[in-house]
Amino acid sequence: MATVRGLRHLLTSFPLPCNQLFFPGLQTLAAVVPGISQVDNNSDFLGKTPHRRHPGILQLPCIKVPPYRSMPNVEKQVQALTNYLWSRRLPVEPQELQRRAVHLEKKFLENPDLGQVEEKLHEAVLRALRKTTYHWQELSYNESLSLVYMAARLDGGFAAVSRAFHEIQARVPEFQPQTLMDFGSGTGSVTWAAHSAWGQSLREYLCVDSSAAMLVLAEKLLKGEDER
Question: Which spans of this chain does the record mark as coiled coil (predicted)?
Fold first, then answer.
């Protein structure tokens, strides 16, 4: 409100014709968007061009997901794994966990019953931490869970990475990579997408994953093996 009043006072104290008013922000906008001399939400700065045809939006080819054999009776497992992956959060850092423990210990020390017995104090702090701290657990992908992960995430991951790679191709056509390293490669969908985009220039692919079963599955998929 004070700014508005100050602006009104300035305009009434120093009256100027409208064509002599100077607002740096508006002149900057006019320089960035030619033809727009003032802030006007009704202005058609795209020149009646649909937003989907804006020059910043790339029209990329449709991505075809490599075929893989469907697995019966895995819908519930796929849905359960998908829900679990979406619900996962980052683990609590050790420093943050220590800070919470110290805070709880100081709080419990105010209780005379706990303050006199160190063992009770320690147990109370642990119970409180268990109730208030997210219990992050490492996922161990064995053979069966790797297959469920493939059914749940392979197509979406392949499509997303392919989209990014094709945008790079369209914007930087001279980029021709020769090697690829995929850390946390999973089912190898990044390798598929990279090969479809730069198969002529790529000469070496390196897939790294902590799960041996996932690496075996990725190798079979990349080689086109049909597991009976």
Answer: none
CA 195 – CA 201 distance, rounded (Å): 9
Q: Which fold has domain 75-86+139-223?
A: Rossmann fold (3.40.50)
pTM of the model: 0.60
User: Using one digit for the tens of pLDDT, what is the confidence trace for 145-193?
Assistant: 999 999 999 988 999 999 999 999 989 999 999 999 999 999 999 999 9
Q: Is 106 buried (19+), middle (13-18) or exposed (0-12) by CB count in 10 A?
A: exposed
Alpha-carbon torsion (215, 217, 222, 227), positive or negative:
positive
Per 3-state DSSP, the chain is made up of helix, strand and coil in percentages (nearest 5) of: 55, 5, 40
Domains of the chain by residue range: 1-38, 75-86+139-223, 90-132
